[in-house]
Amino acid sequence: MKEIVERLTKLKKTISTMESCTGGYIVNAITNVEGASEVIKFSAVTYANEFKIKMGVDKDTISKYTVYSREVAREMSKKIAEFTNSNYGIGITGQLKKKDIHNLTNEDNKVYISIYDNDNHQYYEQIYECISNKRCENKDNISKLIEKMLKDIIK
Fold it and tell me: In what helix (H) or strand (E) does residue 40 lie, and over which residues does it extend?
């Protein structure tokens, strides 16, 4: 994420994250870079639906699409960017090859990623399909995907 921090710093832009299944892995990758304090404004790990809702995600969106959906990832990315007045917001929700008895779906291997560009009101989205049975490997792959997305977005 070094290049991302450098680009954001040069452009005087900021970023915030609302992570669920990645549990802070993305913000950790960002804050491992020297100078990250210049660009990271805030991060929330919202495992529970209750806290996604407290951070601004509409409970009706969760009810209609499930918490593991593109629509919820979109709201997470936008709400965190708006809450922190950041230029970019990252929202991540999904399952890392583990059924959630509280939020049943037929897919336990999809992770929904949304990056919201608050300046241009634009979403960038990806769906990551977990290929490993190891949580840490999936989180690392998701982090690499987000880094690639950010390199394409932040010029």
Answer: strand 40-45
